[in-house]
Amino acid sequence: MTDKIDNNFTTRLAQAERKRVAATPAEAKSAGTGSAAKANDQVRLTDTAQRLLGLEAEVRAAPEIREARVAELKRRIDAGEYAIDAARIADRLLESEAALLSLGARITDRNVR
Fold it and tell me: 67 φ, ψ to 5°?
């Protein structure tokens, strides 16, 4: 059997996986997936996943708005002291883009192995 790999194929694949996971142990065994799921199965997160969970918790705990920073910026703008450094902004954007490209390359390399 051949299937064209497109959005419909991936949707069907995801649906089949959800059905397989939702199947009772007896159904899973009869479906040819091997042995039935054990009650003591465990999942271990990678160090990277654990670090990401920690970072997510830190971000969620941080205030959405840094009130002191906003007040200082408002004061500087009102006083005419706030100057935009376009070159600095451009440099930071390029640094950010380079970091994202590097991260994407590392993730791709890991998935290829």
Answer: -55, -45
